[in-house]
């Protein structure tokens, strides 16, 4: 009996072993691997051929224009190191991306295991898989601390290598990375290596980091490795070659596989010279040139160059050296491509569909913000087409999804860094680059600005008079107002809505109008073209930052007192005063009137949808939505607003218990009573996904690009 049992288990074990050995063969029959195996025994699925990028389809090499999206690490309610995206999210998104006719996605750093599992599951059995370009991050805190790649026993280099080699193991489904706060980790068992068509190592290098490394290590001028070597290299480029060579070596020795490789770069540290850049000490101070890195015969897939290129930054895009040039973006692409002997990938190109704005292109209007969602797609289509027309390697749009946690330079000081992920700031353009929007509300927003007031109830009513009523509600992105009046003529009358947000401040009058409480803001509704929100001069944070703190604009002492009676337009800064090097011309401090209200239909399902719409009129009604930051709310989720600048002598926050609103017109009472509105804070935001109109524009564009 014992012999029988032993024989039985031996037989079962043998069958199991045979089955285990057959699995790879059966998988290849069902889904042949997209890998080419060279005579040296090295496998790869993509390679560089001169200036051409080619991808292997299992039988032959095909010249391929990469068209895709960068995927961020978050969704609402999560910061990047919290990795809240689920495998179900990824599977749904991958289907959207494939339906958009994209062929590649890019990630910047190690993701959680569910990302790789989802990609492997999604691509299994597909004739046209979604390929992956993978990045490896560099610790920006260490860069800021040292500004030297070799400082503190090459701590930055060691971190960079650790990150990159962990990713190599992860894409091969062979990693068990301990979880630690702020970093991805876990067991990685999904092998997606056959879908990885490139590495892009690093970040957008700061000029200080490059210069610091070069200045501190003048002796590091050459590197000769097994797979990469340098020619005419700077110390910083030697550092990059060392890291890249060791990453290639690790994957080759561990897995007998290689992938085409690039070093991340952007316009600020490109190898070109920009004679009319008005800030050359920052934006044209030093170069990082991929041409100084060369592949040995042992690195078979080859090198490519990778850049982040936006049409509005740096400022030389607005001020060409030759005044006859009108398309500076296309000109730049042409010059950059001509510089390189290898394929050039535009790994980031993007336009944010935000209300706020941070940079402008004076020539094209392709600005960093204040772009409608449909126009976003049209501009992106134009930029991607220009990249294609210049015979570049591909265009990867930034970004797939909106990212609520993001900040930008002209609003960062006004919001709370540790709460940004919990609300959507329409004023911060960096949050709105996505083709996929996250709108507040589990299934729909609490209000749609479209002239239809069916979502408003009596519970929203705040104040009423003989001639009109005012209702208020809010969500994670806006504060909403709804006005009803039988006597108000939208085209000829003017309505005034004073808003008191902070105690012991504000104006109690505006011309002949008086208010029950000091108004920190005044909303003036005056037809489609002239409606706006003004701010009490004493509470004008733009004025405080650029007149009081930085002396960029002229001071007006009369407005620096409480209850001055002065209301200012609400501005966003665009740039400081510039001097153009070629002509010596001075470009004055630039600003944008963000308090001006735009009329339109904000219903995404409407034919005349405008994502920039602030208000819309119906039959005797007007609906208005106000971004929280436009009312100096630093974080609506914890009810934090900007505090008194002059008393605190700084930009700080305080808690708001409630806001007070009044309403009057220019043909009724001159004195306005005010009623209070309060909202509940939150730690978990609600949201739902929505594909922007830009998605469908890009879908058509990608379909036409081969």
How would you describe the overall organization of this protein?
The longest helix is centred in the first third of the chain and has 29 residues, at 2-30. A hairpin with an 8-residue loop joins strand 9 (175-177) and strand 10 (186-188). With 706 residues, this protein is an alpha+beta fold. It is 25% helix and 25% strand.
Please work out how many helical segments DSSP would assign: 14
Counted beta strands: 43
Terminal Cα separation, in Å? 68 Å
What value does the average pLDDT take?
94
The largest beta-sheet arranges its strands as 13-11-8-7-6-19-16-15
Helix content: 10-25%
Give the low-pLDDT segments.
Answer: 19-31
Blueprint of the fold:
Blueprint: H1 2-30, E1 36-37, E2 43-44, E3 46-49, E4 52-56, E5 61-63, E6 66-70, H2 87-99, E7 104-107, H3 113-123, E8 131-136, H4 140-146, H5 151-171, E9 175-177, E10 186-188, E11 196-201, H6 207-216, E12 228-230, H7 235-255, E13 261-263, H8 280-283, E14 293-295, E15 305-308, H9 328-339, E16 344-349, E17 357-359, E18 368-369, H10 373-389, E19 394-397, E20 436-440, E21 461-464, E22 468-474, E23 478-485, E24 495-500, E25 507-510, E26 513-519, E27 521-525, H11 527-530, E28 532-536, H12 541-549, E29 567-569, E30 571-575, E31 578-579, E32 586-587, E33 590-593, E34 615-617, E35 621-627, E36 633-635, E37 640-642, H13 645-648, E38 653-655, E39 659-662, E40 664-665, E41 671-672, E42 674-677, E43 687-691, H14 693-704
Parallel strand pairs: 6-7, 6-19, 7-8, 8-11, 11-13, 15-16, 16-19, 26-41
Antiparallel strand pairs: 1-2, 3-4, 4-5, 9-10, 12-14, 17-18, 20-43, 21-22, 22-23, 23-35, 24-27, 24-39, 24-40, 25-26, 27-28, 28-29, 30-33, 31-32, 34-35, 36-37, 37-38, 39-42
Helix pairs in contact: 2-3, 5-7, 10-14
